[in-house]
Amino acid sequence: MSRLPTESAVPPPPTEPYRIKMVEPIRPVSRQERLAAIGRAHYNTFKLRSDEVFIDLLTDSGTSAMSDRQWSALMLGDEAYAGSRNFYRLEEVVREIYGFRYVLPTHQGRGAEHLLSQVLIRPGDTVPNNMYFTTTRAHQERAGAAFADIIVDEAHDPAADHPFKGNVDLNRLEALIRRVGPERIPYVSVAVTVNMAGGQPVSLANLRAVRELTRRHGIKVFLDATRCAENAYFIQQREPGYRNRPVREILREMMACADGCTMSGKKDALVNIGGFLACNDETLYQKAADLAVLFEGFPTYGGLAGRDMEAMAQGILEMVDDAYIAHRVEQVRWFGAAVAASGVPIVRPVGGHAVFLDARGFLPHVPQDEFPALALAAALYVHSGVRGMERGVVSAGRDPATGKHRYPRLELVRLTVPRRVYTADHLGLAARACAELYRDREAICGMRFTYEPETLRFFNGRFEPVAESPYFTTASSAAGP
Ligand SMILES: *Cc1c(COP(=O)(O)O)cnc(C)c1O
Q: Distance, CA 271 to ligand 1 centroid (Å)?
């Protein structure tokens, strides 16, 4: 692939604060193979085999490279069914880094979301969230709650340059409390950072204000802390007064604004599996622990092997290392700058874990009910072997009340950067692929469902192109770029 014409405009990538001790070969896949593969996958990049992918930017979930210390931690596994010493180590680290008293390990983040939703929500409640996350909202709705979006307006505008686009709109939250009554709001769910808004952070000032407002009404606050270290780094860089504060201290201050958190260890905590629910309220912990026995496992392992808890404890210590987290976020920012340099529309500012292509800007000729982001993700794969994922109308699903598509203003393709896995060369290739595809965007057509699952339809949905396109049809592929 040719170099970007504008590449000189992009600053040099940040230097990795680690070196490589073990490698995993990846294989280039021919265009012919990719065309066949995307057809077999029903145009859904989730359904591709990993061997069919060259650079895998599907997700940063569970895809991190563990450190030598984490691999060593695996050898310290105490696989006792009850009372494993690895649990006590995890508990100690969570208490130290997050500051919450009770820790309940779960198989991953959604396990913690499930327990929290079941324990706190009564049918007919409303749970305010700063935008939504797929599994978080699904668990809240499954427990009988109505979802209410309380994020600031800027979050829904891919071009709005706001340093804390994940912030809660306090007026909106206050109006909601007045409308439904504080007794029908079991907790406010605040994601730090907001994945669906493009990995956008929440400021400490905003978290404090949310705490203050909810305290007045006796409402709990739970953080979705999945990407809390990335959020803390943004606070360090962008919020006045925090430039010289270690990320570790900022993280503690963030957590001090909440009653507890759910965490997917598969993201910031640098492990391939794991998560936890943490809180300060003993009764809440006890109820969740009782439910965990049914759904996750005994409360000192929660569906994890002892060794997994040990590796997660070590990962939590590494995620708040200032040099590590600075490189992590700056690498993503550099990737975003490289993509944007050739005019490709992306969500700004670039968030903590991914570059989000604005599919509506990229494919203005594809209407939203023909799933432009899904089509773009499929075309990018066929063009380059780079795998991203749809974050648009397919992910947003149908409104449970009306049965109609929810049309989010953000129709995005997420190119997620796994932690400590790819070099700047890999990401540069992905950026060039986006630029090339953008020049040929007219050739990409929309999609329709051939099979639509009832829940979380982006995972298992099947699609077909609505028209002929060199990106999707083997017959005309010879004429493709
Ligand atoms: C991934 C994720 C979750 C769910 O965690 P899993 O470990 O995938 O179950 C929840 N919230 C956010 C913001 C996430 O990114």
A: 13
- Find out whether the peptide bond into 349 is cis, omega within 30 degrees of 0: yes
> Over 50: is that where the pLDDT of 1 sits?
no
| Ligand 1 atom nearest 108 alpha carbon | 7
Cα 454 to Cα 449: distance, rounded to the nearest angstrom:
12
Q: How far is the CA of 250 from the centre of ligand 1 (A)?
A: 22
Comparing C-alpha atoms, which of 145, 125, 142, 116 is closest to residue 284? 116
Q: Which of 62-71, 152-161, 262-271, 434-443 has the lowest mean pLDDT?
A: 152-161
Superfamily of domain 31-60+322-476: Aspartate Aminotransferase, domain 1 (3.90.1150.10)
Structure tokens at 106: 């779960």
pLDDT in tens, 374-393: 999 999 999 999 999 999 99
SS3 letters across 101-126: CEEEEECCHHHHHHHHHHHHCCCCCE
Predicted pLDDT of residue 454 = 87
Euclidean distance between CA atoms 435 and 430, whole angstroms:
9
Distance separating alpha carbons of residues 155 and 330, to the nearest angstrom: 21
> Is the C-beta atom of 224 inside 6 A of ligand 1?
yes
Q: What is the residue type of 130?
A: N
Longest dimension (CA), the chain: 65
| 396 touches 407 (CB < 8 A) | yes
Which residues are identified as catalytic? 81, 133-134, 224, 267, 391, 458
Spatial CB neighbours of 188, under 8 Å, sequence gap ≥ 6:
127, 128, 129, 150, 168, 173, 210, 214, 219, 220, 221, 222
Apex 154 CA angle, 160 and 170, nearest 5: 150
What SS3 class is residue 260? strand
* CATH label, 68-319, candidates 3.40.50.1970, 3.40.190.10, 3.40.640.10, 3.40.50.1820: 3.40.640.10
Q: Kindly give the number of the ligand 1 atom that is closest to the alpha carbon of 62.
A: 7
The domain ranges of the chain are 31-60+322-476, 68-319
- Band (pLDDT 50/70/90 cuts) for residue 5 is very low
Residue 264 near ligand 1, beta carbon < 6 Å: yes
What is the value of pTM for the model shown? 0.93
Mean pLDDT of the chain: 95
Q: For the chain, first and last CA: distance in Å?
A: 11
For ligand 1, whether the C-beta of 61 sits within 6 Å is yes
